[in-house]
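Q: I'm writing up a methods section and want to include an example of the input and output format. Could you take the sequence below and give the corresponding predicted structure tokens, formatted cleanly so I can copy it straight into the document?
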Amino acid sequence: MSDIRHSLLRRDPLSAAKEVLYHLDISLGSALQAPGGPPALEKATVDLVEEFIFHASRERSGPPKRMSCVQELQLLEIMCSYFQEQSKDAVRQLIFSALFGLQGNQADDCRMAMLGKLVSMGVAVCCVPILECAAAWLQRSHAVCCVGIARVLVDDYCTLVPGSTSTLQQVFSASPRFCCQFITAVTALYDLSSEELTPPPPLLEMVVGWITEDHRLLLLTFLNMPLTSPLPLGCLELTPLLGLLRWSIKAPLAAQRKRKHGLTNGQPEAEKGAGCEELYSKLHLSVLQVFLMLQAHLTEKNLIGRLSVLQVDHVAALVEEVGRLGEELNPLNAANHIQLALDRMAQALQVAMASGALLCTREDLRMLCSRLPHNNLLQLVMSGPVQQPHAPFQPNLYPHIHAPRATPLAHPAHVISPHSFHPAIGFAYRPIR
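A: Here is the clean output for your methods example:
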């Protein structure tokens, strides 16, 4: 590797970076065909990538080398062209992982900055190979890093340049897999805990439009993830369903909090708020419909009662957020908004439990929601049909639940009790506006 490095030092920065990409392509492409799969990347190769692509200093105390803006743009074009021209998806994924897999050192900041710019360029030129590689990266990387990439895209296409959202919107038809991971990342970024963490209207409109056009978009990662593969620690959720529920349920409270703080003044802002309320209502209905679609997939794979798509502890955290936000508002002035949020929560809990996405008993549900303000629909959901003591079991109320597997699933799951919701129970619902 020392000979390669000395040869690269005599080249200009762009030529050296291109040569490192060529070296990676040859070495990893050959290793991919070897028995047992590709080996781990050698440290010497990692050092070459960091020095000649990300321009990190070889001395730990030394500052990183800086490229001019023109050189950086040219380097991004070289990367974009490489991924576009490489015909083998497995090789592309390996090279992408070799370039942007975090190593836990100072070069990681350069990696993340370059990755954000490369994905943004991939969106701008609609480069499907980069978007597909980025989708896989988002699926296996830590949520904090994924949120950073999502923030870059939101800034570039939804905040800084008005009207540029249409460029990001076209990605829907090019790479639905990337869109699914992007939605999951932005729901982790924006949790409506503050005005700064509320999704901007262009982003909200785009996400709702995607989901309305094709509900299956939210389930792409879940359906393509082998159940035997454990999820990496700290990664994003398998679906953005929980994050989108947080948006639709907390939206009325967040809007009232904004009015309380006097952040909206005048008719134009009021009209914008009304438009967002309509979008959140559409989002709520779409999420409920996705839960019903999910029921069919769980039934087909014989996973009803054995695989929890929504984790109880995550739902408990959402319930706590809603309760805390409701307490911050004046109940006398925000009663309608609080009731709207609780109505949506009740509907979401009912449909999620009835579809098998949330494994939770009625007793657990009562405990979760015990501190929330009174809501008629929520009380109805928590009560439901009651099996009388010593009475014969009624299959129409509590249908048979399959026994758990002898080998536990990779994803967390537990068997629900006879007093749980089950998808065979019929229910009527309508979206709460």
